[in-house]
Amino acid sequence: MARRRGVDDELWLTVGAYVVPQLLYAAARLGLADLLVAGPLALEDMSEQTGAHPATLARVLRALASVGVFARARDGRWRLTRAAEPLLSDHPRSRRTAILFAGHEQHLAWGSVMHSVATGQPAFDHAFGRSLHQHLATDEAAMAVAEAQRARRAARRDPAVVAALDLGAARTVVDVGGGGGELLVALLSRRPGVRGIVVEAPHVAARTRARLQAQGWGQRCEVVVADAREQLPAGHDVYLLAEVVHCYDDDDASRILRNCRGRRVVVVERVLPAGGRASADRLADLHMLVMYGGRERTRREYAELFATAGLRLRRVAPTAAWVSILEGAPRVAR
């Protein structure tokens, strides 16, 4: 009589689940989906165009086909499936850049997870010998992948933030760690009289400045190079930090918030549920530790963080995305 598989068996099956993400990474690196978008191809043609070992490529394709990614036609040629579409570079559901980053940087960092468990410090730094920010500043290929991934994430997140955030009577907005400035531009598009400042690291600032100039936002958006832990432009109406605070531990996060010397501080972050139930939120919390040394926080933890920075958490509002808007103001006039 066959033994019925139980909950414990399902859990232990995840131990081998890392194989599929790494095979997806290989497919993304080789650009297999993009090769097949015009129609089915023979293995020999795919091997020639990617430089992959023919017999091994066949094994990779068969393994991915076993989980629904790619399929082999009766004539032996390989074709796309719906499950393979996120591997395409140019597709509304594309996850290719996320897979590329996960398959290399994240994979190696998580391989050193015990460093984080033992020390409370980022495993990425241990695995790569430098922080993720330093890595992206010196590795053009990794930076390009991270930029593309960030832009796709912003495209899903920013409309929800814009819909839920009221700038009120603000005349200036400082976007701390604003990346390419997409969220700031989306906010300013609805408020013609408001000016913006993007604060970024040197390796990001140059790209952002060029992008904003090319898009015609150079007159309304300034780009400033600064380390937010040390200093930020002072005296502005709104300080916006979208998925920035979770990259830092409490000490550095408090320093950044304390440097927001203005009338309003708006933090856009995932807010953890108060309970201890395992969920995607809790997994994201550990991911921030492994990659950055940061953390996700509950509403109470954000209130405490704001308080240490001399701020009062006034409002927490959910959005249609995975993030909430946490609004704070100085406890005393600055």
UniProtKB/TrEMBL annotation:
Active site, per annotation: H246 (proton acceptor)
GO molecular function terms attached to this record: O-methyltransferase activity; protein dimerization activity
A biological process term (GO) from this entry: methylation
Gene3D superfamilies: 1.10.287.1350, Vaccinia Virus protein VP39 (3.40.50.150), Winged helix-like DNA-binding domain superfamily/Winged helix DNA-binding domain (1.10.10.10)
Annotated InterPro entries: COMT-like, COMT_C, COMT_dimerisation, SAM-dependent_MTases_sf, WH-like_DNA-bd_sf, WH_DNA-bd_sf
Keywords per UniProt: Methyltransferase, S-adenosyl-L-methionine, Transferase
Domain O-methyltransferase dimerisation stretches: 14-89
Source species, domain of life: Bacteria
Entry-linked PANTHER family: O-METHYLTRANSFERASE CICE, PUTATIVE (AFU_ORTHOLOGUE AFUA_4G14580)-RELATED
Protein name as annotated: Methyltransferase
Phylogenetic placement of the source organism: Bacteria, Pseudomonadati, Myxococcota, Polyangia, Nannocystales
